[in-house]
Specification:
The chain contains 13 helices and eight strands. The protein has about 300 residues and is α+β, with helices and mostly antiparallel strands. The chain folds into two domains: about 130 residues, no CATH class; about 150 residues. The protein has an eight-stranded antiparallel β-sheet, with no helix packed on it. Helix 9 packs parallel to helix 12 and helix 12 packs across helix 13. The longest helix has 18 residues. It is globular. The mean pLDDT is about 90.
């Protein structure tokens, strides 16, 4: 949105989009800019905020008259794209423009029953379309929506947690390779669950499943780096008292940050996948030991604070 996204620092987003309303829900925060909302989660020990996603609330275009739509869209968007906006964005119009640009949408079956949901892989963006209307009105467009892996039963996960690596390998060899993505995703979520008493064991299961996924080429090096960086930074931020004790089972922040930076294809302008890698790497900066790497991450953080339209 005008070169900013959920990985752009909070104040940098406000500088671009302007007037907003700030809302708090428990520990979370979101800022409402009219047409678009940005969502954040707090970091521990007063370190500020991490962006989680933003949503373009296109359904709001249907409210009121033309001047109301201009107010909803906001002055920054009007200044760049003009004063005229339709009351509804049809899916046909959106898909036509994306097709012209060579961007593919895939329908997925993850939304509530009143919507049809489409997903764009490269930008990790989802589109909700009203399923009850002939026009196919676009309701909202949301960032940071990774592919949802097929879920693995809690019983299966508990059984795998109790197995040795050799036992897991034998089980995997019996035709269960397709479950690996669900396994590492579940294990990662269990690792950062509050009140978790077996955190180190869940880390071990995550690393086993991720390693086997890479060996079988089910995930790319970039996907592995991002997922592991998210695991390390979340555990370090949410559970600082346990982080040092988990050093024997977790990869170091230095190692994971370097893995993320190594997968960046083009420094400028940063594209969607590269932005996510930079975000994953810079979130590790507080736990990186190498001063040169910390300086490099600081330079990347500055680059991410500058609006970038690709």
């Amino acid at each position: 949105m005008l070169g900013v996204d959920h990985g752009t620092p909070v104040d940098a987003v406000a500088k671009v989009l302007g007037r907003h309303w700030e809302n708090r829900n428990g520990s979370g925060m979101w800022r409402d800019y009219g047409l678009v909302e940005f969502f954040y989660e707090p970091r521990s020990r007063g370190r500020g905020w991490w962006g989680t996603h933003f949503s373009v609330q296109t359904h709001r275009l249907g409210y009121g008259r033309a001047r109301d739509r201009r107010s909803t869209v906001g002055a920054a968007v009007v200044e760049r794209y003009g004063r005229k906006y339709r009351k509804a964005l049809s899916f046909e119009a959106l898909k036509g423009e994306l097709t012209r640009r060579g961007v593919e949408l895939v329908e997925v079956d993850d939304g509530p029953p009143y919507v049809r949901e489409y997903w764009q892989r490269e930008s990790e963006t989802s589109v909700w379309v009203d399923a009850d209307e002939e026009i196919g009105r676009v309701l909202k467009i949301t960032s940071n929506r990774a592919a949802r892996p097929k879920s693995v039963s809690k019983e299966r996960m508990r059984a795998l947690l109790e197995m040795s690596e050799a036992e897991r390998d034998r089980w995997l060899g019996r035709g269960h390779e397709s479950e690996l993505t669900g396994i590492w995703s579940h294990a990662r979520g269990s690792t950062w669950a509050h009140g978790q008493r077996r955190r180190a064991e869940w880390v071990g299961l995550y690393r086993w499943a991720m390693t086997r996924s890479r060996e079988l080429q089910l995930v790319t090096a970039a996907e592995e780096a991002r997922a592991t960086a998210g695991l390390v930074s979340t555990v370090a931020d949410w559970f600082p008292d346990e982080f040092e004790d988990l050093a024997s089972v977790l990869p170091s922040a230095d190692e994971v940050a370097r893995a993320c930076l190594a997968e960046i294809a083009v420094r400028e302008p940063l594209r969607h996948g590269d932005k996510r890698l930079v975000d994953a790497a810079t979130r590790l900066a507080d736990w990186v030991w190498d001063p040169e790497l910390r300086r490099e991450l600081g330079q990347w953080a500055i680059l991410r604070s500058v609006p970038s339209i690709v």
